[in-house]
Amino acid sequence: MRQRSLIAITAALAAGALTLTACGSRDSGDKGSDSGNGDGTTVVIGVDAPLTGDLSAMGLGIKNSADLAVRNANKKEFVKGVTFKIEALDDQAQPSAGQQNASKFVSEQEVLGVVGPLNSSVAESMQKVFDDNKLVEVSPANTGPALTQGADWQKKKVRPYKSYFRTSTTDAIQGPFAAQYVYNTAKKKKVFVIDDKKTYGSGLAATFTEEFKKLGGKVVGTEHINPDAKDFSAVATKVKNSGAEVVYYGGEYPQAGPLSKQIKAAGAKIPLVGGDGIKDDTFMKLAGAEATGDLATSVGAPVEDLPSAKQFVADYKAAGYKEEYSAYGGYAYDSAWAIIEAVKKVVDANGGKLPTDARAKVTEAMQSVSFDGVTGKVSFDEYGDATNKQLTVYAVKNGAWVPVKSGTYTG
Amino acid sequence: MNELPQQLVNGLLLGSMYGLVAIGYTMVYGIVQLINFAHGEIFMTGAFGALTVWLWLPGGTSMWIALPLMIMGAVVVAVAIAVGAERFAYRPLRTAPRLAPLITAIGLSLALQQAVWAWYPEAKSARTFPQIAGGPFEIGNVTIQTGDIFLVAAAPISMAVLAYFVMKTRTGRGMQATAQDPDTAKLMGVNTDRIIVIAFALGAAFAAVGAVAYGLKYGEINFRMGFILGLKAFTAAVLGGIGNIYGAMIGGVVLGVAETLATAYIADIPGMDKFGSQSWADVWAFVLLILVLLFRPQGLLGERVADRA
Prior knowledge:
heterodimer; A: alpha/beta; Rossmann fold; seven-stranded mixed sheet; five-stranded parallel sheet; 13 helices; 45% helix; B: mainly alpha; two-stranded antiparallel sheet; two-stranded antiparallel ribbon; 11 helices; 70% helix
């Protein structure tokens, strides 16, 4: 009897272990991209994004787009004698997983730059690890102002980490831009503000609220939701009874979708407005048909409309990736390309070879990188922020995000 | 406008769903003193079972035909997994120290989550669940969603069926006997192995009904949906008195209403506006749990089925 139960336990454990290792290898073994010609140096560009879980739609778009940049660089032999490869790690949108991934990238000598992460909260846990090792990190999606301008960015801007750059705009611009659109163009004066208390969501909600009040609008209620929750009926009832004309949500689509749906179901037929974190097709899937009229701001001009982006969209289709490039695809491509440009600078300056302190040199070179990318001109200011400060408002029409207004935020 | 009736209804609906899942925890605990932490995942597989039936049905099938089939699909999948888990994961450990099956349950919970994640088509992010057409119903100033009608009907019916089964049928009495003292029950001719399997199966069936309600209510299901809901349902079971099937439902409703009212009203208390948002609702729910357990360690209704600790 003992014997039999032992066998059963061992079998169960073995089966469990197999399942887990199978998942593990799927995540980290995804090194993508063709290795190109065998001679010369190989440079690895790390990619860190949520490849599984709620936010994987955006994460996989980032991974594929970075992979595309690497493929193009290899095809064109953009840097003579250097073959690029990507290595994608899954952070599950968790700061702890992000930090482990950062340590892994740092320990691999061939890694000269990292694209990612998606979440500002994950970036906070990675920045120091990268900076201590002079490994450059270019995020396509982080919009938290504190990442580049320090915790006291509203009073005194101090860049905390020299190795951190981003191609996306910050919430310091995105929130106010949304406030101006809602107040001036959509003519809504009473807002209910909801956020998910994460770095990204609460930052966005705060900058929105500040500008909205400054314009003369009224905040009729605030609420913070739990990112693990799915039942927002109590919040929805509060929104309905507050008499708000519009809801502003600082957070991401896994909660924004059900939230929008439940607010409308509760009887408040008012639009939900959010940031780039809700601008994903999954939002419509979750929010249902009632989502028509919901708004989202996103960084940059619509990728599909930029002439520079047409090539990217065509290449992406041709490469046959299973997943969409999603909200940050263009930025991920530009982030990866910025690393490639920086590597090229370093290699060119060193007579066609990688120097021994390549990481530090690449980080230094990043500051002066400038090229015409998918999303427009890509270069960085003294804080590591993108100099491109364009934003676009999108609205839900017939189950798709349609650009309604593009512009640049000016103070 | 007075929003109290609406908030009470919101809480009642949420609580009924907790209750349906809590029954599984409480029945299994009442009979084998095992906290089946994989129960939340059994709930989740039930939802995917229902979705599979829906995807298999020809497009455009009316919900009136589809819904019973989906419930059957959910129940079949959830019961099969629960019975399999009992046979292969828990039964070999029945005489082992209490911690061994507990760890097994946690492991099983992870394994089920990852299995759905890895092998169910497109389950890596949320999947949409079919909805019942038709607008919401208005009673006074209370709005009830069409999807919630199912929950309103299913929770009391399930409860009544369960009460009848446990109190009136032969198997149900065998169940009570096993809960009181398995060894004596065995001597009296009760097939305790069978009773334990039935307890697992019944719990899974109620979780499956709850899972269909979840899908209809929120319009989406995902591989992690069982974790938080399972935790809440377990809390509900403890709140009501673990081992007591009525306690599970009462505990669920109390928990749901407490969470909803905390979200709605705590912020209105002067000086408490920082602690009133929905993200604090769980904190208040657990404060309530601690208070109840301080003054009534046996839960609101106490253990009726099993009276030994």
